[in-house]
Design a protein that fits this description.
The structure is a single chain. The protein is an all-alpha fold. Helices cover about 85% and strands about 0% of the residues. It has helices at about 1-10, 15-20, 25-85, 95-110.
Length: about 110
């Protein structure tokens, strides 16, 4: 390793061993790198799981909202339909209407002539 080469030419064997046993030592650097990679992998897994959970929640929430709104608007639609159907509309007798118009027209012509 590059660290061993740079320290071995300047350090005694005892200093090299002390160096290797510290946090800056070659073996500990590999251990720290390994631990950093493990932490990174755990973070990636947890992040992916969180995103999947949020996507599933968003889908379920959208379905719930759609069903909720549909249920409430259906109740409103039913109430309006029932109110409209409960209104009694008078029937119009067209024959009587035309007969009244005819009598009115005859009366008006009689007054004019």
């Amino acid at each position: 390793s590059l660290l061993n080469l740079s320290t071995s030419s300047q350090c005694s064997a005892e200093d090299q061993e002390t160096f290797n046993n510290t946090l800056l030592g070659t073996q500990n650097i590999v251990a720290i790198q390994t631990e950093a990679i493990e932490i990174s992998n755990e973070y990636e897994s947890e992040s992916t799981l969180t995103v999947v959970r949020l996507a599933e929640y968003a889908k379920r929430r959208a379905e719930y909202d759609a069903n909720y709104l549909d249920g409430h608007t259906q109740n409103i639609q039913d109430a309006i339909y029932e109110a409209v159907n409960s209104i009694e509309v008078p029937t119009v007798q067209f024959g009587d209407l035309f007969q009244q118009i005819e009598f009115s027209a005859v009366d008006m012509l009689a007054c004019i002539s």
